[in-house]
Amino acid sequence: MAESTFFRSEEMSLIQLYIPAEVAQPTVSELGELGLVQFRDLNPDVNAFQRAFVGEIRRFDEMERQLRFFTTQIEKAEIPVRTNLSNAYSSRARSRQELDDLEERLSEHENRLLQMNNSHETMQRRYLELTELKHVLRETSDFFHEAASHQTEIRNSFDEPSAPLLDDLESGPSQEAQGAGLQLGNVTGVIPRSKMQTFERILWRSLRGNLYMNTAEIDEPVIDPTTDVVVEKNVFIIFAHGREILAKIKKIAESLGATLYPIDSSHERRREALFDVVRHIEEFNSVLVNTTQTRRQELMRISENLVAWMIIVKKEKATYHTMNHFNYDINRKCLIAEGWCPTNEINTIQTALRGVTERSGSMVPSILNELKTHKEPPTFHKTNKFTVGFQGIVDAYGMAKYREVNPGLFTIISFPFLFAVMFGDVGHGIIVLLVGIYLCMNERKLAQVDGEMFQMVFGGRYIVLLMGAFSLFTGMMYNDIFSRAMPFFQSGWDFHVPDDYPGKTVIVAEPNGHTYPFGIDYAWHGTDNYLLFTNSYKMKMSVILGVIHMSFGICMVYYNAKFYRKPIDIIAGFIPQMIFMQSLFGYLTLMILYKWTVNWFETDAAGHAVRNSPPSLLNTMIYMFLSPGSVADEDRLYPGQAFVQGLLVLIAFICIPWMLFVKPYYLKWEHGKARAMGYHQPSEHNVRVSTDSTRSEEAAGAVVAEEVEGEEEFEFSEEFIHQVIHTIDFCLSCISNTASYLRLWALSLAHAQLSEVLWGMTLGVAWGFTGTLGAIMTVAMFSVWFFLSIFILVGMEGLSAFLHALRLHWVEFNSKFYIGTGYAFQPFSFATVLSEKETV
Fold it and tell me: Which domain of life is it from (predicted)?
């Protein structure tokens, strides 16, 4: 049994469970609480609707629908839901009787709630009609009164085009109107205010203005019982001649959502109707209040247990869904399950199985067998709240192959360090560090905050913490805090400025014999050649870090090959790759270090230069390939350089056919040797072999299934082409990836220059003023500088450095050794089931 480490994924075992039918549900429920087994589907060809427990799943689907309905009603009523449940109550498996009682209870609650909802909605709709009718009766009374006041304007002749449309509304039409066959009628009702303008236009165009219309706004808020939304409405009354015109008006009004109310033309009858409506409204008010209170009490009773019921239903549904993956042995009356679990946790699973058997009182125990198989197990990295963020960075690139070296272990250090190289600033590092400390210290409270972007940052809170700490360190190495220097130690340079210095000539600093103990000497800040110095320093530093990082990645090839027992990957992979890398770029790193250690401006006693001017390493690398074995005198770095470079180029070229030919021909020889010994290729179809288990005393001769997977036929041409592609990719990527690490220099330079420009354009300008104006400018410019520093230098520059560090790990580092063809371990776990958000 392998020890659990973060260097490799957990060792996994394929287990087989024989679970008695009478304890199947509590057993699977207990395994769901543990969350240690990823069950395999033993019925892949069976339709989901034809499986053994589809009836139970439909039953829990219906219960889940009822709970969602309760949740919607409770949220609409703004009733708080009780969430503080004890773990014992929420984790206990339910018996069949308890589930039947819960189903019956949910149905009773739903029926009562639906009945109250229907009654409440009906009464609300009737109350709405009475309210609208009340306003119609009040407003139309004014309309009729206004129309009656125009009786003096009515003419005796109806032939004149200017004759009024309104007649005696209280006493009926005049004799002339009756003789002419004209009938004056009205249409009254209520219409949404938003449709009023459209209603008027349609009436005017369809009736050609042959109507008289009056409207009034309803000041009282009107609530739609269907949507529970406040709707603004208007009362309208329309007078027109003829039944066909009145019928057309009614159709137009109803098509626009208006509610029509017939109104009597008699004043007395309208007044009596108004009194009746007001009385009915008062009665409905009291009934509505009682109904609403009863409904709210019912919802409050439901809310007390809603979360507990939801947990029970989700767990039971997940349990039976998992049991649908099992086979049923009719003879033994048990369920047979297969799944993956960590080898170190087999004893924990067996203990849980025995506990379920003892609690249920069953005489037949559940049996666990460990199977032998050729199937590739899932990959499971055991993480905690600190390592889960770094492991997520690796898993986003690709899931590790089973038991291969896990880059997540090295990412804990390398990722925040490479980020800090590009983001090095003490001030900005402190800001990021404080953000990380805040997120880590308040993680319990902040874990409840919703928001995808925030949860993404919160999940990587320890990454933020380390990025801030490493940025603080690199900022001290760069001697940079908000683009200012930090004179912590005595400088190694002295500037001798004469008293009559005009400020137009260049003053050269002289060494004073002191060595600055940590980082860059602060004397470099503000000098004319500061940018030239830091560019050279950071560019060479980026190459050194890149070569070290990639060489470390190549070293992981050795550990993978040793673990998988593939010596050919060491002989034809690790060794030539490492030699090729070090012959070229390892040599470049040594030249950089040597060039840093030599005093190129040393003079002899006569004052003449002892050495040539420092040679360009870029030209040295170019002519190393263009003219191997020869070095110009002015470009010579050390004695014997020509021979060493020629030898290194020859070794690098030898490594190319070494990587290209050795592995394919070795695999061909190994395949031919196996065939000569009588071994043949496995068939294409999976073969299921049954043997007796001897590893478990409880198995008592139980049948164990071993699966043998078909393998692809060996093809030398395919293997050779694959090796050609791999060799070309490695050789070219060594060059391109080394150049890619120059992004460390580029982003560090950009960050430092942006910080300096921002300082000079804000606080640098403000401090040029004095007095009251200087104080005002300082406060104003400090606010601008602080905001832009947070938004641009910390936010945008931090995100840019994060993405570039991500790319260096995914492409430059992982490509050297990471296979990443595995699949994740996804155990049956109630914690995962309950954490999934509802999607309806």
Answer: Eukaryota
